[in-house]
């Protein structure tokens, strides 16, 4: 079975071809235009998707070296995401499925961040059911109990900002360009994680809150900059390391609680923030210290990509779960 998958939920235009569970190609075109605005501008995003989608799909087919007549079905991101961006991928997928006379499969982007673990890469083994998945991304922070491919239950989630936003907004406060998450990660590796102490939110149960952290970082930086105008520049590495350390502690605290509460020790992460090197190494250590089995996606399947849409497409294809031409994009699309 060959699946052609399309992802366009935010600011990455991506297309992939999968042969069963294996990825033959996974092309991602990241839109640079948003950098100068310090965040994603929805209007510009949809326009860029319109420009990118044809070349990206062509490149995915060319890299996979298969003719489009061989494709068994088209999978696409229906939501959640930016409406204008989703519409580009949705209408393109619909017309392609109509033109080729092959089935159309709608995919939930957040399910895809989790099911990316079932991509076969010849190295890692996928988690076994039931497992816990912590999805940490630009728009979401959730702890999900995954009983089966399409049987997922949210145990906890953020009450305000997503963890990716916490990274990006902290980065912005330090004058770093958008998206700041990867830069915080980079500088954190050179700094002392215990240099500065930031308060951790007190949130009941398995829910998260990140807006308070952002505010305390803002006040801290304002206070220190008043004393020393070069404070950020002189302490950038330590600031990044300490902020990242705090975020990781918040995440791990809830994850440990979730394991205790459910008794499930199969633990996976997914979403753009799971590309973070500190989170990856901290989770790896839990194998030894806590006796968990942990699953960390390959780097290229963490941030937005069409390969993860393709694996969901494949799993739905096997169940003959197809969509019809009346389907529309869904900006808010819950698990
Ligand atoms: P969602 O999946 O919730 O719809 P999204 O698709 O916009 O949101 P992703 O592409 O999954 O988000 O993740 C993007 C986020 O991941 C950004 O906030 C970015 O800063 C963050 N991110 C990426 N790499 C790293 C890293 N190494 N360290 C920290 N954050 C990172
Ligand atoms: Fe995403």
From TrEMBL:
CDD domains reported in the protein's UniProt record: ASKHA_NBD_TsaD_bac
Positions of Fe cation binding: 109, 113, 304
EC number: 2.3.1.234
Reactions mediated catalytically: L-threonylcarbamoyladenylate + adenosine(37) in tRNA = N(6)-L-threonylcarbamoyladenosine(37) in tRNA + AMP + H(+)
Compartmental location: Cytoplasm
Main location: cytoplasm
Cofactor(s) this protein requires: Fe(2+)
Gene Ontology annotations of biological process type: tRNA threonylcarbamoyladenosine modification
SUPFAM superfamilies named in the record: Actin-like ATPase domain
One MF annotation (Gene Ontology) recorded for this entry: iron ion binding
Keywords of this entry: Acyltransferase, Cytoplasm, Iron, Metal-binding, Transferase, tRNA processing
Note on cofactor: Binds 1 Fe(2+) ion per subunit.
A Gene Ontology cellular-component term: cytoplasm
Keyword tRNA processing set for record: yes
Domain Gcp-like residues, every copy: 22-310
Positions that bind substrate: 135-139, 168, 181, 185, 276
PANTHER family recorded: TRNA N6-ADENOSINE THREONYLCARBAMOYLTRANSFERASE, TRNA N6-ADENOSINE THREONYLCARBAMOYLTRANSFERASE, MITOCHONDRIAL
The family this protein is said to belong to: Belongs to the KAE1 / TsaD family.
Function comment: Required for the formation of a threonylcarbamoyl group on adenosine at position 37 (t(6)A37) in tRNAs that read codons beginning with adenine. Is involved in the transfer of the threonylcarbamoyl moiety of threonylcarbamoyl-AMP (TC-AMP) to the N6 group of A37, together with TsaE and TsaB. TsaD likely plays a direct catalytic role in this reaction.
Protein name: tRNA N6-adenosine threonylcarbamoyltransferase
Lineage: Bacteria, Pseudomonadati, Bacteroidota, Flavobacteriia, Flavobacteriales
Gene assigned in the entry: tsaD
